[in-house]
Design brief:
Elements (H helix, E strand, L loop, with lengths): L2 H12 L3 H14 L1 E3 L4 H12 L1 H10 L3 E5 L4 E5 L25 H20 L8 E4 H11 L8 H13 L3 E2 L12 E4 L9 H9 L16
Antiparallel strand pairs: 1-3, 2-3, 4-6, 5-6
Length: 223
């Protein structure tokens, strides 16, 4: 029996067509993450992915990739071989840097600031039921300056592009009415930040004033 035939039989039991299975695979390979509360499309993708989670994990395991499912925060994240993630088993595969997303220096620095703020909220017990931490844009700017000795991009457009990049990697959730200049507007840091910046990476960056030697463990991502 071929692998495809065996897979079709397993998917039929879960009532998920092979075409849908491929769509989920493609989404994870392209963006590295599926978050249920992002939008209606990801809600449906997430729900179907849960039904075929075992088959997805087996598929990625053959390639040396690790598929992590956080059932509490309702997201799947795909990690490249050799990824270091707090709370997950050590990956014995050799790292494959080419599989990681190429992100900007501003993205790395801001992700570190978000990780710092998330840890603060975690220590304070100020995490919502969905696992998110609410912060203001000013909180992020101050944390970058005081903890990492860095500044946000200078122009408004560059700031917006940075927020879009963070959203694309599902690290932030913003309301449709969010405005950078609105001091009363809050952003939600998603628990996915914990799988992108490890405790060790954060500690190293804080000691070195924001310098980090390795990129976050994000998969290749496209808009």
């Amino acid at each position: 029996m071929s692998i495809t035939i065996a897979l079709r039989e397993q998917l039929a039991i879960a009532n998920v067509p092979l075409e849908r299975f491929r769509e989920i695979l493609t989404r994870l390979l392209a963006q590295g993450v599926i978050v249920r509360d992002e939008d209606r499309t990801e809600q449906l993708l997430y729900d179907d992915a849960r039904r075929v989670q075992a088959q997805l994990s087996d598929y990625f395991d053959v390639a040396g990739l690790y598929l992590h499912h956080d059932a509490n925060a309702h997201f799947f994240r795909l990690y490249a071989p050799g990824a270091v993630v707090d709370g997950l088993p050590e990956d014995t595969h050799e790292p494959v840097p080419a599989l990681k997303a190429r992100v900007s220096a501003d993205f790395v620095a801001t992700a570190l600031a978000l990780r710092f703020l998330y840890q603060e909220k975690l220590n304070q017990g100020a995490i919502g039921e969905s696992g998110e931490a609410l912060v203001s844009f000013e909180d992020v700017a101050v944390t970058l300056q005081t903890q990492l000795k860095r500044q946000l991009p200078s122009s408004h457009g560059e700031k917006l592009n940075l927020l879009r990049e963070l959203r694309r990697h599902r690290l932030l959730r913003l309301s449709s009415t969010f405005e950078i200049a609105d001091t009363d507007a809050y952003m939600a840091i998603r628990p996915t930040i914990l799988g992108i910046i490890s405790n060790d990476a954060l500690a190293t960056a804080l000691e070195a004033d924001g310098v980090i030697e390795q990129e976050p463990d994000t998969e290749s991502s496209e808009e």
